[in-house]
Specification:
The complex is a heterodimer.
Chain A: H1 2-9, H2 14-45, E1 52-53, H3 59-62, E2 64-65, H4 69-76, H5 79-111, H6 115-126, H7 133-144, H8 150-157, H9 171-197, H10 201-209, H11 214-239, H12 246-252, H13 260-263, H14 266-277, H15 280-308
Antiparallel strand pairs in A: 1-2
Helix pairs in contact in A: 4-15, 5-9, 5-11, 6-9, 7-12, 9-11, 11-15, 14-15
Chain B: H1 2-35, H2 38-44, H3 56-63, H4 65-98, H5 105-117, H6 122-132, H7 140-143, H8 150-161, H9 165-173, H10 178-189, H11 191-206, H12 210-215, H13 224-240, H14 255-271, H15 273-286
Helix pairs in contact in B: 1-14, 3-14, 4-8, 4-11, 9-10, 11-15, 13-14
Classes of the chains: A mainly alpha, B mainly alpha.
Chain lengths: 315, 291
Amino acid sequence: MRVKKDRAIKPSGRKGFARKSSWQLYSMCAIPVILVFLFNYLPMGGLVLAFKDYRYDKGIFGSDWVGLKNFKFFFETDTFSRITFNTLFMNFLFIVTGVACSVGLAILLFELRSRRATKVFQTALIVPNFISWVIAAYMVFALLSPRNGVLNVIIEQLGGQKIDWYSKPEAWIVILTICNLWKNVGIDSVVYYASLMGVDMALFEAADIDGATKWQKIKYIIIPSLGPVISILTILKIGNIFRADFGLFYNVTRNVGTLYQTTDVIDTYIYRTMQSVGNMGMSSAVGLLQSIVGFILVMITNYVTKKIDPDRALY
Amino acid sequence: MKKKHKNRQIGLILFLTILSVLIALPFLILVSISLSEEERILSEGYGLLPRGLDFSAYEFVFKNPASILQAYAVTAEFSVITMVLSVLLMALLAYPLSRREFKGKKGISLYIYFTMLFSGGLVPTYMVITQFLHLGDTIWVYILPSLISPWYVFMMRTFFQGIPNEISESARIDGAGHYTIFFRMILPLSKPVLATVALFMFLAKWNDWYTAMLYINKESLVSLQYMLQRIMDNIKLLQEMPSGMTVNIAEIPSETIRMAMAVVVAGPALLVFPFFQKYFVKGLTVGSVKG
């Protein structure tokens, strides 16, 4: 019976099946590929706007070419250095504090004996990730509101003076870093925790037999086994270092002008230039710069990582 | 030795408990304010615990028929549609990419991957969506642009690759095509990653204020989060306004109502998690290994 079945399929030609099945595979990709074309690749074509003086009545293709004027104009504004610095500096802070805290948390969770407790704490840590920056802005406002904010109420009860947080730009370097940690540390620590679960337990047993201390185990087993995941996630973040989390910088600061000195970043600037000034050309020029620099950065970080340790590279 | 271990565990649990409470604090404050009495808030400020106990803010939110319920319905609609469609379409894309014999694999992977590295940016995307595809002020603008996310496609592909090849081979010998294999074998075996992606997609859309801010002018299509954002903007306008100008104060809800709205909007995002938690850690990790 079995032999017969084999024969029934084979003579019809393996090639015929392969062709049919390859056609099926292509057909599966079709809709997603079209969607990606429409919403990701078409806009890339729209980048010609960066080299044009866009006028609504003339349209994208009808508007006049202006060469690099949009770029030049952007470099000449005094906002250029401010937003570039803010974006890089804040993202750098976010990356460093983020990696340190989430790896630390993952190790603590890993040290917990009770799996049940691990799960409960994980949930508590992840939940902020499910909250939008809009709602987070309400929470921050509830804490920091100049008139009613919880913090000011407490300060006043202790006999201090109320502080108008929304006019203190320096404070927001810390406030935004805390907000970023609050929202993202949990989810990152789950990723690190899960890769710790994959570590061979025999390593820890061997270490125990050799009388290794907790600290030695962390240093020689845990950190090295997290290495690849840490570097992959960090490469991705460095690649995006010129992109700011728009929701965080726009909503949580309530887009208050007095805070721009520390909170105005490239993305909020692009949005403002487009929305209130209506300068489409310059806005796309800045966006194009952001994309190119980001692209180069990913390539470089990945190349360097690959040189040092191929295992840790992204691709 | 044993005792030292135990002490350490207790210390650990204590530390993590304090941390969890600190993280939960903003939620508690939000709820406290929403349950407080308006007058006491105005005289005493916000507190960690409710000042008095008053449910009228919630009563107002649920009784005020027009805007909030409408936004709730719109948001729920596009969130659910996006979640279902995106999981299906991304899985359909990820499956061929997970097949070793698929000839287009390399090209299509690169095509998808490149969008992670390079993008047109805000303005060109805005132009394409409003002037070329004419999606502005339609419900589709919430749905179509967010259906394919490269990160999740690769997560799914890696997960599919982990499914033993013998399973689909045996089905093929029985004459099954790729669609049958995909729907009958691969999808049922991939619940962790599908659930995880579904959760993230749902949350991303539920929390979407950005799309509405850019593309929606019609009151009937405003999303919940955008509605909240606008209220915050109006408050700011009121504070920054030079005297003499007028803002429609009636459009700004009272302190307690505002916070009650935030609670009601955040609620579903928190409630869905337990349903997905079973799959969550597994889905998040198996897929995130590089491929």
